[in-house]
Write a structure and sequence with these properties.
heterodimer; A: 285 residues; mainly alpha; Butyryl-Coa Dehydrogenase, subunit A, domain 1; Butyryl-CoA Dehydrogenase, subunit A, domain 3; 2 domains; three-stranded antiparallel beta sheet; two-stranded parallel ribbon; 9% strand; B: 377 residues; alpha+beta; Butyryl-CoA Dehydrogenase, subunit A, domain 2; 3 domains; 11 helices; globular
Amino acid sequence: MDLQPDDDQRALRDGFRALLARRFGRDALRAAVSAPGLDRTLWRAVGDAGFFALRVPEARGGLGLGAVEAVLVFEEAGRALLPGPLVATFLAAGEVEGAATGETVVTAVDGTLVPWLDEADVVVGDAAGATPLRSVDPLTPLHRVPGACAREPLASLLLAAEQLGSACGTRDMAVQYAREREQFGQPIGAFQAVKHLCAELLVRTEVARAAVYAAAVTGDPGEVAGAKLLADEAAVRNARDCLQVHGGMGFTWEADVHLHLKRAWVRAGLGTTAARAEEELAAAL
Amino acid sequence: MDLSYTDEEEDFRARLRDWLAEVLPKLPERPDPLDWPGRRAYDSGWQRALYDAGYAHVHWEASPTLRMIFLEESERAGAPYVGANFVGLLHAGPTIAAEGTPEQRARWLQPILRGDEIWCQGFSEPDAGSDLASLRTRARREGDHYVVTGSKVWTSHAEVADWCELLVRTDPEAPRHRGLSWLALPMDAPGITVRPLRTLAGSAEFAEVFLDEVPVPVANRVGAENDGWRVTTVTLSFERGTAFVGEVVGCRRVLGELAREARANGRWDDAVLRRRLGRLSAEFQALWRLTQRNVSEAQRTGGVPGAGGSVFKLRYSHARQELYDAAADVLGDGGLDLGNAWARERLSSLSYTIAAGTSQIQRNIVAERILGLPKGR
């Protein structure tokens, strides 16, 4: 029994983290916000690194890995705020030509929403009658569809992994800011009120991590629903507390906090939502 | 990542499960919580049964994973909790095992394991709770004895204890953390007065202990003189390790019972309440997984559990309170009836964010030791 990544899994995660730091660092993130639209070069680079092909069997050119490895790389994508229909393309890899390599961009109808509809080459599900929303997240264009469509648990697990990564990202941002920013002659992180916000950021992240990793190992639908619920909460609450730690700066467009919060809201609305997860878990009691 | 257990661990689980199934039906009924002598006899009897069956060492010598399996299976089977043996088995025993001399280990460990001697904890004082290092109980050295004067509070099981793990100030001139020593105090020594404290739950769970010129042999000091703070840190880290494993399993069982009760009494139709129970299910499932992660980490590092226990305690103590708040709502009027076990547990749960380090202290630990934030106000 061990809920930590092994050496190979750590190497995979670290490799992908390094790739994202190189290809989608802060400057690239801010450039993407200024000029929204899917960066196909980046998408192919992510595909070249094996991201989308991770679960495709080796015999068919993929990496032949499983849900645990998928969760680890999606966590990194969430931490870096990598934009695009990552989950849909990942799930289509091996079935839709070119999805595994990042040549083809695939999106899917999720509940009543479709992310990145205009940029996608292939849409899974019925997007007839889709109307655009003014998406709260500048890096996730959304359409609303009249019908509703259920998604497989793996989609919720991957969204949960992204939420976990985002929760880690905002935890680190808040802690770094609390160490550096001085008021009343000392770093604000020395004040208990701020310290306790930061402690809760870590607690939420670690509880969500235990839930997400275990759900990846067991694949149990109830456990996946619970993991999504807790990861949604961790991502949203952490972004809000991070914003609070940043004070007035946190409310500006220039700080990255709002990008995490808005993406977290969008992901919480995709896959298994809180209301559905709670009902599902209650029904199983 | 792997959530499976080794063959050895599965064998242990199967043997324990069989044994529990055999002995539990023969167990006498649990005494009233206010009947301290009855509780002592009952808890000691259970500890003796564990000893005779070869399970008494599980908290000390077994791997963290075996310890977790023991607590998990015991709770599932409805076995008695460690009860009055708590301090001896989970605090004093491991501390003496780690820090004591061969003579001290020979004197105290066996009676703890057999349930023959009960220990209580003499750390907190009226003016030294969260700020434990400010304690003032004095131990003056006179030849081969210390003479102890002061008072302790929140001392669980003091009424029936044979021994007290006592933290005293042996050097008033030294910096606060440096002048303390850890003593094994015999509770029948002259000069000790025990006064039970009634908790808000109505039970006499704790006591105040007054010490008036109490002689304690120097040979009863565990660790070096004035090194008591370090010895105590060892003790407390054991407390925050696997101490809550059984409780998480218990909370998950209670949650299932709440759902059954709500379905039976019609409260299940309340979507808000139903969803609260669903959320609690995710919460306790995650806390169980967090436990497994902490235990596997302790197993891998082979060390004493670290600050990760604070993360668990913070979240668990809050979740337990939410569980019994939800229980009160499931019960409706019954939530106000102290004849109901859940109503009593709701009261008891209020101590969880205070005892064994308040949530505020735990947050300081997490922020300073894990996140590296500066110490300050």
